[in-house]
Design a protein that fits this description.
Blueprint lengths: L2 H7 L22 E4 L2 H5 L4 E3 L2 H5 L6 E2 L3 E2 L3 E3 L2 E3 L6 E12 L7 H8 L8 E4 L3 E13 L3 H22 L15 E2 L6 E4 L7 H14 L24 H6 L13 H14 L4 H14 L6 H11 L9 H11 L20 H23 L5 E5 H8 L3 H13 L3 E5 L6 E6 H9 L6 H13 L3 H7 L3 H12 L5 H8 L2
Antiparallel strand pairs: 1-2, 1-3, 3-10, 4-7, 5-6, 7-9, 8-9, 8-11, 12-14, 13-14
Helix pairs in contact: 5-6, 8-9, 8-10, 9-10, 12-14, 15-18
Length: 491
Amino acid sequence: MNELQQLILHNGLSDQYNLIKTTNTVNKLGCIAVYESKPKMAQSQGTIIHDFNDLMDQQASTHFTPNIFAWAAYNKGKVAGLTEKNLNQINCFVVDIDMGLDKLRAQEVIEKAFKTTLAPTAIIESEHGYQAFFVLEQPCFISRANNYKSLQTAKIISQKIRLLYAEEFDGVDLGCNNFGVFRMPTEKNTIFFEPMLQVNFKDLITFTKKIAQKNPPMQLVGSQKMDTVNNGPKQIKTDWYRDLVLLTNLEPGQGLARNNAMLTIALANYQSNQSKEQAYNVIDEFNTNLSNPINNSEVKRIVASAYSGRYHGASVSYAKSLISAWGTNTKSYQATTITWYKFKRSRNKRQYSHFSEWERDVLSLLYTNVNERGFLTLTQNQICESLKIARSSLQTVLKRLVKKHVITYRASKGRNATTHFAIISIIIKSVIGNKNKQRKAYKETILSFVNDLNEMELRLLLPAAKYIENKLMRAVSPPKITQEVMKIETG
């Protein structure tokens, strides 16, 4: 089990499975499900995991549920019980980006992700796209209190994050299950991972409220009732569905746009137990009436996605947002507001929260400007102005990041002097390269990397050389590099 998996699961499983059930909400252990392949996942043919030891034996699996469920069971060979109200704790939010044939390179995806105002903790590559993971610093525990208020809040946050990324990426899946099955992170499919970029649940509440104020048309406001689709009437019998299929002016684009509207209609048909052929006929007619239709192969792809088994149905709040954005003669849909929790923290906790938030902000800014080997140069004034942070606070944050072995830096003298930074994780990744290299080739890679460094980069690397060496030793047992760096540094 790798570091990212451990970070995501937040000790939500037991170290040794036992059948003793606890009634405590906090620290209550649960289970997850893993799947050997995407076809097995589509058929709900998975394995229920209760403890970390069992998960170690499932590292060849391709998909898993990153959030913890109170229980799960087998029903006719299929995994059952993975419903929202059965969630034990929410560990992370995930944005699924399906790019199809227009798949971007990994580095392009990382760069675009950091252009948003919320950097991910990790990015996982899939067959046709990527999944961005936003891992919580502490899990959000789910209970029945106040009609599952914590779950409702988490769903709003999840939808807002997806809408935010839909502004930057084509193909963001806005209709998939917020807390369902996603790619299982491995060393091979993880293109980006920075533990320091975990997110705080309370901070996300504030963050999503800011998004709503800044961009009202993109809102996905949850109602007091759960926005689930398993219960209640068939969605194709609702008023919003009838209004949605009458829209003709939808345009291509991101977020509230044509293709996502088609997926919403198809999902409503799926929830209503309509056949795949019936759904195709509805979407085909809808597409014909559009002023800017898509080709037939794309229609088939959308219907296939809706019936893939990954979803339960359409998001009602998203469907109503589509109608509000594109409707002309339809009635206005006003989603009911949700009451947010207000938290008052002690002064020490508030201070710690500020520094944690500043650390993530500073690190996000550095990642945005860093080169592929892990180095960059900025003035501290630029950082202070960009992040609206006091210079004294920035100094404290930088020292904290150095102490945690996240960065190393050297500052020139003077108020407007430049500061040279190095991000440790990128340097390690640059050196590691192909982990299957022979020892001799590996040594040549290290020497080549060190020899390519300029004087300032060498000075940056020297304080962190021992730490990097230890990390590399654990990874692939390479030759030591501390002496090599010091040799070049001292001439």
